[in-house]
Structure formats: C-alpha cells, structure tokens
Specification:
alpha+beta, Topoisomerase I, Chain A, domain 4
Length: 584
C-alpha cells in the first residue's frame, strides 16, 4: 500500500533515547521499570539486569550497552584499567558526557539520522509494511509468544526502539522487498542474504549480581588474547548514516559487531507512536572465522568449510540446540584450553572469548576462585530456510569461576565429565525402556525417547546444584564421586519405575533376535539385569578413584546389549545448548 506523509509532518517529532525511558529493567527489589540510557548507566549498581520482550531482545540490548560503554571509556585498554573500573562504584560516569556528545544520533525520530535507521528509505512502490516484520514474537502466519495476536498495528516509541535493535540482530532471512537505490535488487526483490548477525551465534554472556557487574564482566580489554582490536573500531552511531544498499565492508571490532547494521529500516510514525515499517537487507557479514572479533559465542571447526575453501582451520559459531539444557552442553562453554593442541593441530572447539576473559580475571587474581557467575545462553532456532523463527533458546548456568581457571583445568574437566556421567546413565535408562518394549513386541523409539527425557529432567536441578557447590569443594575428584552416586540412585529409581510399570506381557517376554542373528528370550527380568550391569559400567564404581568415566565397553548379559556405554544405537551428535529459561 502507499501511504501519505506521516501525520504531524509540520512539526518535528523527537524521541531521545538518552533521556526518554525505553529500556526495561529489573530493580534490586524485583520490581520492573523502564529507564533511559542515561538512567541505566547512572543506576547500574542498583539494577539486577535488563529485561526484554524476548531473551534475544535482552541479549541485543546488553550488546548495545556494551558498545556504549566501550566507546565512552575508550577501552578498557588492559586488565589494570579494568580493575580500576571494577573497584570504582562510579565507573560509568564518563558515559553521561558521551551520550550528551552523541545525543542527536540517539534520536529515534530524527529526520536525517534516525537511530539505527535509514532516513528516506523506500521501496520502488512506496510500500509501508506491517510492524509484524520487526516484532519477532509474531512470525508470519504462526503467531506465538504474543499478547498481540494476530497483528501488530501500533507500537510505542519505546517498544519500537527495542525492536529496531532486535531486527538488526535477529531478523529472519528469505526473499525481501528491494529498496530503491539498492543495486542488489532483481525484479523488485533481494534474494536471501542470511539472518541478522546475532541470529547465527550461540549467544553467551556472563551475568553478575547487578547490571553494573554484568556490564563490567563482559567489558573485555583490548589486550585480551584471541581477540583483534582495531583503532578505527566504532559503533553505528559514530559512522556515516547508511544508504539503502551495502558497501560490502567488514566489521572493525567489538563496537562495530555489537551494533552491526544487517538491515535497512525506517519507521513510519505519527505523534502517538509507530504504525508501519520499511525493512530491507543491509550489510551482510559471513560468520566464517570471526572468532577473533566476536567474543559472545562458542565456535566449532567445520571440516566441510575447510575442504571447500582448501584451508584449515575454519571456525563457525556453535549454535544452541533447543533440545538440550545448558548444563548438558557445558563442554562448549569450558572446552578449548582443555583439548589437546600439540600434534593434533587446532582445537575442534573454542569456548566463548567472554569466558576466556573471565578465566583471565580469575587466573590473575582479580576474581576469587569461589566467585559465582551465571553463564547466560541465548539464541534462535530458525526454520524453513531461516525465513521463520521456530524457537528461542534461553538458559542460565550458575558456575564458580574456578572452572575457568587457565592454569588449573582440573575442576573444569570434572564438571564436563560429570555431565558425561549423566549422559551415559540416561542413555542406559533409554536402553532399558527399549528392552522392555522389545519384550512385548512394541515399538521402541517412543519409550526410549520418553525415558531419556525423563532422565535428563530428573538430573537437571541436581546437576546445577552440584556445579554451584563446586566453588566450596576442596577435592574436585571426590566431588564428582558424590555426583556419580547421586546419578546412580536417581537413574536407578527411574529404572525401577519403568520395570514396575512394564506389565504382564513384558514379564512373560518373547524371543528376540539380536544384531548377530542370535535368538534369545527377553523379558522384564532379563532387561532389569542388563540395566543394572550397564549402569554400573557407565558410572564405574563411585567409591574408586580410578573408575570415573572409564569408557569401557558395556556388554549386556547374554550378549545382547551395547558394546559401548549407553545406548544400543549410535550416540547422539548434538553438542550445544539449551532449553527454556531455568532460574537457578
């Protein structure tokens, strides 16, 4: 549709993000409020955290605040400068003058340089689209997470500002309407150029007790190993305003990436709020080998890309798996330094440089080994060629910073091994469910999946508590033995329940042909015996210091069981994070 000029065109409207409330926050007393940029930095020590309409919006807002802080402080340059900020309650005081200096560029409705938008952006037909295009909780055709179903007719200026930040970070891919003046337009359209930058990340940041602590813990210094810093790095509001197309430039560093303009946006508004949007592709950016610039994601080596490009190593972001909670993917947060890098070459995974930075803080004594941090994991699972949002990933994992100690990997190794203990035990539980189904001639995959889901659910809260308690554990090996005993008891009880509920048909049993062609009688009693043997082998003897995670084969009595710990089928290959938000 074609719209006339915005109502109120005779007057100059303004929504100054430095002084007008628009950032949702959680106060120390648990109440919620909306604050301006100035207020957020002035009161950061009194606030728990930023909140958002979605976890992904919160992630994008935190990155925006970090870009402001890095640029206003022009650093920190090194760890000594960071330590001074950590000790200074008024460390963000320079931000106030910075926001005043750049105030004009933080005006959401500025006629020439609207915040993170392109003035005069238009399609060839002067179309203005529904706000559904930028509000991520209303995917096209299938609304969810929404109190506005099925359409978003209007947004307040505060809401619109948050969604503009979010759309640059997480907008879907797919074919988009072309913008006038963009040389990428073919037949009125621009063909898929990928999601917003953060949409390809397995987002990770560190939460402290207050927003001030959170910002400082994620405020990496320019001398951190593994990250590249450019003297010319600056955020979007200190660059020339974007045109409708792209100049194909690369990111210059953190401040640039945290505010990367992956889209071209123009809000249509009147004096009462925003009622439409023009949205197109902006600056595409390849995720390949950006581990030296982007600190807020783990990375994985890609053999496919290495073969395609003829070079090695090639790293891509390790995205989160909505089917797995954060503790099950703890290796992606702690691995990297733990992997052998001698003759084997580059590690297969790199942990987020944000956690590498926190590891340096504890290794050099700026944080106590007993200090607890929350690793916050946030991401998106897209569907149908990345053109729709399927799931939003949000989880927290409270862990002692001793797990990140660069010179003492013992605690980290035991934490990872403990998660593997749980994984093996739950696979054994799934095997029991499959054996009981075989004993009745029933389908096996459904019962096996249900048993595994129940097992991981039963171990979720205990593992999180065990991990937090590691801060006080004098002996990480004995602490893991305690965990193994708990896993054995918990999974053993679940197995008892499966056997008790198996029914008469399972106790009567039936003949079963194994993978080698042998025929055996299988009933609930034999399945129980196999289960106990597999569980003992999977967890070893919790009382023996040499047993944890032995990885020895687990052969069921009678020769009809897996030849390795856990399942009868191939092991799962998912290795990321997470599930719905869990408060610990």
């Amino acid at each position: 549709m074609t719209e006339p000029p915005d109502a109120g065109a005779g007057e100059t409207l303004s929504f100054d993000l430095t002084s007008r409330p628009w950032i949702p926050v959680l106060r120390g007393d648990g109440s919620q409020d909306e604050l301006s940029l100035r207020q957020v930095f002035a009161r950061a020590g009194e606030l728990q955290r930023v909140v958002g309409d979605l976890a992904t919006q919160e992630f994008a807002l935190v990155r925006l605040l970090l870009a402001v802080a890095h640029d206003a402080l022009d650093g920190p340059a090194d760890i000594e400068e960071w330590a001074e900020l950590w000790e200074d309650p008024d460390c963000f005081a320079p931000v106030q003058a910075y926001l005043e200096e750049h105030r004009e560029r933080f005006d959401l409705l500025h006629p020439l340089t609207p915040f993170l938008q392109t003035a005069g952006l238009r399609t060839a037909k002067d179309e203005v689209f529904s706000l559904n295009r930028i509000v991520a909780d209303v995917p096209a055709g299938e609304p969810f997470f929404s109190a506005r179903m099925p359409d978003v007719d209007r947004l307040t200026f505060a809401e619109a500002a948050r969604w503009v930040i979010h759309v640059h970070a997480y907008d879907t891919s797919g074919i988009k309407t072309g913008m006038a003046g963009d040389d990428r337009v073919k037949g009125g359209k621009v063909y898929p150029l990928g999601t917003g930058w953060a949409g390809g990340l397995g987002g990770v940041f560190v939460e402290g007790e207050t927003l001030r602590e959170t910002l400082l813990l994620n405020l990496v210094t320019a001398d951190i190993e593994g990250l590249e810093f450019s003297p010319g790095d600056r955020p979007a509001w200190r660059r020339e305003p974007c045109g409708s197309g792209s100049d194909g430039r690369s990111a210059t560093g953190l401040r640039d990436l945290y505010t990367w303009q992956s889209r071209r946006v123009r809000l249509h508004h009147d004096a009462d709020g925003v009622h439409g949007v023009v949205l197109g592709y902006g600056d595409p950016l390849a995720w390949r080998n950006m581990h030296g610039r982007e600190p807020m994601t783990p990375w994985r080596r890609s053999p496919v890309q290495e073969k395609k490009l003829g070079r090695s190593p090639v790293y891509l972001p390790l995205e989160h798996d909505p089917a797995r909670s954060a503790w099950r993917g703890i290796a992606s947060l702690l691995a990297d330094r733990l992997e052998e890098t001698g003759g084997a070459g580059a590690p297969s995974r790199l942990r987020p440089r944000i956690l590498e930075w926190v590891a340096r803080l504890v290794t050099e004594g700026h944080l106590s080994r007993r200090f607890l941090v929350r690793a916050r994991v946030v991401g998106v699972r897209y569907g149908t060629q990345q053109s729709v949002v399927d799931e939003v990933v949000d989880d927290r994992l409270v862990m002692p910073v001793v797990l990140l100690h660069g010179q003492d990997p013992t605690y980290a190794r035991q934490a990872i091994a403990a998660a593997e203990d749980a994984d093996r035990a739950v696979r054994v539980l799934g095997d029991l469910a499959a054996d009981l189904a075989r004993a009745t001639g029933s389908e096996q995959e459904g019962p096996k999946s249900a048993a595994r889901a129940e097992g991981f659910d039963a171990l979720d809260h205990p593992y999180r508590g065990w991990l937090s308690a590691m801060a006080q554990a004098p002996d990480p090996f004995e602490h893991r033995h305690t965990w193994q005993r708990q896993v054995r008891q918990t999974v053993g009880r679940l197995g008892d329940r499966l056997i008790a509920a198996a029914g008469d048909a399972a106790w009567e049993g039936r003949t079963h042909t194994d993978a080698k062609g042998g025929t055996h009688w299988l009933n609930a009693g034999l399945a129980d015996v196999w289960f106990r043997g597999r569980l003992a082998r999977a967890l070893g003897d919790p009382g023996s210091p040499s047993s944890p995670g032995s990885g020895e084969g687990v052969a069921a009595p009678g020769g009809d069981g897996p030849s390795e710990p856990g399942p009868t089928g191939p092991p799962e290959t998912d290795h990321a994070v997470t599930a719905p938000e869990v408060h610990v």
